[in-house]
Amino acid sequence: MRTVVIIGAGFCGAVTAAQLLRKAAEPLEVILLNRSGLMARGLAYGTRTDEHVLNVPAGRMSAYPDDEDSFLRYAQREDPDISANSFVSRRLFGDYLEYLVREAARAAPAGSIYKPMVGDVERIQPLAAGARIHLSNKKVLEADRVVLALGNFAPGDPKVDGQYENFYSSPRYVRDPWRADALWVVKPDEPVFLIGTGLTMLDTLLSLRARGHRAPIHALSRRGLLPQPHRELEIRPVYTTGLPKRLPGTPNVRDYLRGLRHELELAKTEDVDWRDIIGGLRGATPQLWQVLSTRERRRFIRHLRTFWDTHRHRCAPALGRLLDAEREERNLIVHAGRVMGYNEHADSVDVLWRPRGKLQLKRLSAGYVINCTGPESDTRSCAEPLIAQLREAGLIKPDELGLGLIVDSDYRLIDRQGHSSPTMHYVGPFLRAQHWEATAVPELRKHVAQVADVVHRSLAQQPQALVVS
User: Fold this and answer.
1) What secondary structure letter does DSSP report for 407?
2) Where are the alpha helices (DSSP H) in 59-197?
3) 280 DSSP assignment
């Protein structure tokens, strides 16, 4: 029997396991390996906070691209009032992913094995006809194929002058707000300073309020932009998809921006919502990204990325209203600027920051500083042990812009010399390096389905052989 080991059990890992099992033509062993006990959850869907809801309506959250209503049917079995346009809890979506894997394992060819396993991978050793996976508990797994489904890593520390870097080892600094126990240290009456104003900031605000926190929260980012909300809709939106065809033939960021602005101005006169214009770019985004030169991609990241993220990756309508209420009541104060340093005291910390466009520093006192800058994606310097091992062994090729990993058209990892791995594949948000759109379920589910097809095809083409070192 062939064995596929999937490392990472969030959305991509769980659905890869389900797709491999449901598409198997003969008995297959699938090992789903995760270093925490949460399977089919990951950071996003392991939350136990009811206020954490999906950022995409239920009708567009199917894990299977060939069954658009898969999640909606599951959700309606739990609550018949849920519609295609409902924004439901992430916990429910995690339950759905667990259900999919169980059902796929039950329906797999007789003799197939699905094995969820808790373990921390220290090293992957490529072999002539597979790979050997070394775990921190000294256990060793052997696989015909390995799928890295690594998701989001903890944020990197914001850059400050060297004299202030010691603060990042302080108990008054929370580097990863998604860690299960990270926010319990914050007392209800302590002001908090959040670095970042995107979706991670919103999740952190919701978690703090759910724990009874009522003190003011300050949030700072370079531009001070907040996530835009989705609309309340009774039917699925109809996206306007003509813009990519009307963009100039010479690919550059300035022309992309001009074309988008022109389209948005036309939309105002035709009673078309701007969200439908942005949504219409989703399918064409990988092609638009891939034809840009490295220089143009750098320009986009430096000048436009934040604007794109706040408009493209929106929050649920109810959470948009909550943000407005928090700001109106001055419970949430948003700043545009840059953190310059910290002065820590016995019971507080002063954050030194410079407002955007100003030279003079300002000072804000808080009980804790929480890093909400979003997940780390720079595999060139990421300290995650497995990424570091693969990088040092030359088995991966980080992209030059720090967005993720380079893979070939079959999702096979590219090594330092530019060669495709015969046995190791990657699927997950690090595909952003080549596709840009690789963080939301509607895009990731397509990548996952293709990875499963590629793995099955490669196993069918490989003669059965004993794996030897």
Assistant:
1) B
2) 70-78, 90-107
3) H
Q: In what order do the strands lie in the sheet with 145-148?
A: 113-118, 28-34, 2-7, 145-148, 420-426, 412-414
- 9-33 mean pLDDT: 96
Looking at residue 420, the DSSP 8-state letter turns out to be E
- pLDDT class for 467, splitting at 50, 70, 90? very low
pLDDT tens readout for residues 201-224: 999 999 999 999 999 999 999 999
| CB neighbourhood size of 212 (10 A) | 10
Structure tokens at 194: 């959040």
Any alpha helices (H) in 58-197, and if so which ranges? 70-78, 90-107
Sign of the torsion angle spanned by Cα atoms 81, 83, 86, 88? positive
- Tens of pLDDT, residue by residue over 232-255, are 887 777 788 888 888 877 899 999
User: 234 near 278, Cβ under 8 Å?
Assistant: no
| List of residues 6+ apart from 464 with CB closer than 8 A | none
pLDDT-derived band at 466 (thresholds 50, 70, 90) equals: very low
Q: How far is 120 from 138, CA to CA, in rounded Å? A: 10
CB 111 within 8 A of CB 2: no
Collapsed DSSP state (helix, strand, coil) of residue 223 = coil
| The token pair that represents 100 in the structure block | 């999919």
Q: pLDDT tens for residues 32-53?
A: 999 887 777 776 777 777 789 9
**DSSP at 112:** -
Angle, alpha carbons 52-338-309 (nearest 5°): 45
Give first-to-last CA distance, the chain, whole Å: 19
DSSP type of residue 405: B
